[in-house]
Design goal:
- By secondary structure, the chain is of the alpha+beta class.
- It has one domain.
- Helix content is 30%, strand content 25%.
- It has helices at 2-21, 35-38, 48-54, 132-140, 145-149, and strands at residues 24-30, 69-79, 85-96, 102-109.
- A four-stranded antiparallel beta sheet has the order 1-2-3-4, with no helix packed on it.
- Strand 2 (69-79) and strand 3 form a beta hairpin.
- The longest helix has 20 residues, at 2-21.
- The protein is flat, with a radius of gyration of 28 Å.
- The protein starts with a helix and ends with a helix.
């Protein structure tokens, strides 16, 4: 009788682990202002500074110096060991004219077409694959001793 109840306990534990492993986990990434916040921005009147004060500047990934603002929010569903699935992505684009006045506000989502890929652009290092000595000796050719002796 004791062995039988122990087997039931083990079976219940295994079933609990299996059910827990298959449950969905949702992760939210990024930020997009709400419609109420955007209602405070008037196209053709407000400036970049006003947008910064009202809804805040986007993260470094959505901000190009002197360019438009892009706010991105994603909701990703994870189920066990399966590949994560993007179930929602919102992109809010605020464009500015030459005088930093708001020119347009657009919102895009998955329903507007394809999944918007989020990519990071990383500059490749020029020293990748070169050893320390090769880097050191490679710089000797660009050394100009005359620059040390000039009185500029």
């Amino acid at each position: 009788m004791v062995g039988h109840s122990k087997a039931k306990l083990w079976l219940a534990g295994i079933a609990l682990v299996a059910v827990t492993a298959c449950s969905s986990i949702y992760r939210n990434h990024g930020y997009v202002p709400t419609e109420d916040e955007l209602a405070e921005i008037v196209v053709g009147v407000d400036t970049r500074a006003t947008v910064d004060d009202v809804i805040g500047a986007p993260s470094a990934g959505g901000l190009l110096e002197g360019g438009d603002y892009y706010y991105v929010r994603s909701r990703v569903k994870h189920i066990g060991m399966l590949e994560p699935q993007i179930i929602d992505r919102q992109v809010l684009a605020i464009s500015f004219d030459g005088g930093d006045v708001v020119q347009n506000i657009e919102r895009f989502g998955l329903e507007d077409g394809q999944v918007v890929p989020i990519a990071r652009r990383v500059t490749n290092s020029s020293v990748e694959g070169k050893g320390f000595l090769r880097q050191l000796l490679g710089n000797l050719g660009s050394f100009n001793p005359g620059a040390l002796l000039s009185n500029n």
